[in-house]
Design goal:
The protein has about 450 residues and is α/β, with parallel strands linked by helices. It contains eleven helices and 22 strands.
Length: about 450
C-alpha cells in the first residue's frame, strides 16, 4: 500500500507521497532500538494513511476547510534544538512557572532538564518515550487499541516518537495542575512535529492537565497533535488546550475521550493566532452515569481560520453532555463549528445540550455552524442551537452614555461574550494566560488592556 501510494504520487508536489517517503526515510535513519510493537504500530499508521489519503474538498467533514495551503508546503521533521536554544525559547514564551508538574517540549523534543516530572504516590507525568521503555506492556495496550480512522491521526501514529504520558493510579488526587508545554521555534524551512499525549486516570482518581502550544518565532511549521484520555470509573479530569502559535503555522489536533461509569471529563479548547486550526474531539460515553463537558473559544483576525469538529457518542443510559463553543471574529477570518451528538439505541435518560455562538466584529468575517443531533432512543432530553451576531448597538450606546469611550465599550462587551467560556476555567493563572494570548491583535479588545 505504501509503495503504491508513493508511486502514484511520484510528483514531488504530492503531499501524501512526501510524508510516506519521509516515513520510510525515518525508518532507515532510526538508530534507537524501539519495541517491536511500536515499530508495528508506526507501520500500521503509515499503511492507514496510504489507504485513507488526505481529506479532499468534497469530504463532508472538510467542506468548510481547505487544506490547500497545508498541502502546498513540503514539511520535514523538526531538528532537535540544543539545550541552550530550548532554555531561551522557554524564557521567551512562558517565563512564568505555575506550581506543579511541567513537561517542556521544544520543536517536539522533550527536555527533562527544563521539566518538573511528577512521581508522587504512584502518579506519573513524564515523557511518553521514557514510559514505553519502562512499561511497554501498558503502553502497547493503550496506544494499540485507539482509532486510526482519521488521516491525521494515522499520520501522527506513523511518526510517533514522543509526547506526554500522565498516569493516575486508583484513588489518586493531584491538586496542582500538570502543565504540558509545547514550544515551537520555527525556522528557515517548514517543519512538522507530531506530539502524542496519553492521559490515563484509574478509577476514583482526579487531576487537571493543561496542554499549551505556543510560538517563539514566526516561522512556518505544522503541528499535528493527538491526545488520548481514558477516564476510569468515577475518575474526574479537567483538560485544557491552549493554541497560540505562529500566524504562519498550521495546527491540527484530535482529542479522544473514553469514560467509565460515573466518570467526569471537562475538556476546554482555546484557539487563536494561527493561519489554520482544525480541532477534532471524539467522546465515547460507554458506561452508565458518565458525564462530559466540551467548551471552546476561538479568537481570530486577518485571514485566520479555526475549525472545531466534535462528536459525542451516548452509548450507555443515564449519561450527560454539555457543549458550548464561542467564536470572536475580526478582519476576514473564518470560524467553523460542526458538533454532532449521537444517542444510541438503549441510551435512555440521556441529557445532552449543545450551543454555539459567534460574535462578528467585522463585515468580512464569516461563520459556518452546523449543530447536529442523531437520536435513536425515546426517553432523552436533548437540545442544540446556533447563533451569529454583532455587538449590541444599544448596549454600546448605554455604556457610552455613562462616559465610556466607543472602543472601550466594544472591548467590554466582547470580553463579556468570551467570559462565558473563560469563566469556567478554574485555574486563575491559566485564565490570565488565556486572555493575554488570545486577545492579542483583536482591535476591539485593545481598549480593555489600557
Amino acid at each position: 500500500m505504501i509503495a503504491s501510494a508513493i508511486a502514484k504520487g511520484a510528483d514531488s508536489l504530492d503531499p501524501l507521497a512526501r510524508y510516506l517517503r519521509a516515513f520510510e526515510d525515518d525508518c532507515r535513519a532510526r538508530t534507537a532500538i524501539a519495541p517491536r510493537w511500536l515499530d508495528s504500530l508506526r507501520a500500521q499508521g503509515a499503511e492507514r494513511l496510504a489507504g485513507l489519503g488526505f481529506p479532499k474538498p468534497n469530504d463532508e467533514d472538510w467542506r468548510a476547510t481547505s487544506l490547500a495551503p497545508l498541502k502546498s508546503l513540503a514539511f520535514a521533521r523538526a531538528p532537535r534544538p540544543t539545550l541552550a536554544e530550548a532554555r531561551s525559547a522557554l524564557e521567551v514564551a512562558a517565563p512564568g512557572e505555575p506550581r506543579g508538574a511541567r513537561l517542556v517540549f521544544v520543536d517536539g523534543a522533550f527536555f527533562g532538564e527544563l521539566s518538573r516530572p511528577l512521581t508522587l504516590g504512584g502518579a506519573v507525568a513524564g515523557s511518553l518515550a521514557e514510559a514505553w521503555e519502562a512499561a511497554p506492556a501498558k503502553l502497547e495496550d493503550l496506544l494499540g487499541r485507539w482509532s486510526l480512522g482519521r488521516a491525521f491521526t494515522a499520520l501522527n501514529t506513523a511518526f510517533l516518537s514522543d509526547g506526554a504520558f500522565v498516569f493516575l493510579p486508583r484513588g489518586a488526587s493531584v491538586e496542582e495542575p500538570i502543565d504540558l508545554l509545547y514550544l515551537a521555534t520555527g525556522g528557515r524551512e517548514p517543519v512538522f512535529v507530531q506530539p502524542r499525549n496519553v492521559i490515563v486516570a484509574e478509577p476514583g482518581s482526579s487531576a487537571r492537565v493543561v496542554e499549551r502550544y505556543l510560538a517563539v518565532g514566526e516561522g512556518v511549521y505544522f503541528t499535528n497533535a493527538v491526545t488520548q484520555i481514558a477516564a476510569g470509573d468515577g475518575a474526574a479530569i479537567e483538560h485544557y488546550r491552549l493554541e497560540r502559535e505562529s500566524r504562519a503555522a498550521f495546527h491540527v489536533s484530535e482529542v479522544e475521550v473514553r469514560e467509565g461509569r460515573d466518570a467526569q471529563v471537562s475538556a476546554f479548547s482555546f484557539s487563536g493566532g494561527t493561519a489554520l486550526v482544525r480541532n477534532d474531539v471524539a467522546v465515547s460515553l460507554s458506561a452508565p452515569g458518565a458525564r462530559v463537558g466540551l467548551f471552546g473559544l476561538s479568537v481570530t483576525s486577518g485571514a485566520q481560520h479555526v475549525d472545531n469538529h466534535t462528536c459525542i457518542e451516548h452509548v450507555s443510559p443515564r449519561c450527560a453532555s454539555e457543549e458550548s463553543y464561542r467564536s470572536i471574529l475580526d478582519g476576514a477570518s473564518k470560524a467553523v463549528f460542526h458538533g454532532r451528538i449521537v444517542v444510541h439505541e438503549g441510551a435512555q435518560k440521556t441529557d445532552a445540550t449543545q450551543s454555539t455562538k459567534s460574535l462578528l466584529l467585522s463585515d468580512d468575517a464569516t461563520v459556518n455552524a452546523k449543530p447536529q443531533l442523531e437520536i435513536r432512543a425515546d426517553d432523552v432530553k436533548c437540545t442544540h442551537g446556533a447563533a451569529v451576531g454583532q455587538l449590541d448597538q444599544e448596549a454600546i450606546f448605554y455604556l457610552r452614555s455613562r462616559g465610556i469611550g466607543p472602543e472601550q465599550a466594544r472591548a467590554m462587551l466582547t470580553r463579556a461574550f468570551a467570559s462565558q467560556v473563560i469563566g469556567k476555567v478554574k485555574l486563575d493563572w491559566l485564565r490570565k494566560v488565556i486572555e493575554e494570548e488570545l486577545f492579542t491583535g483583536i482591535g476591539a479588545l485593545q481598549g480593555a488592556k489600557a
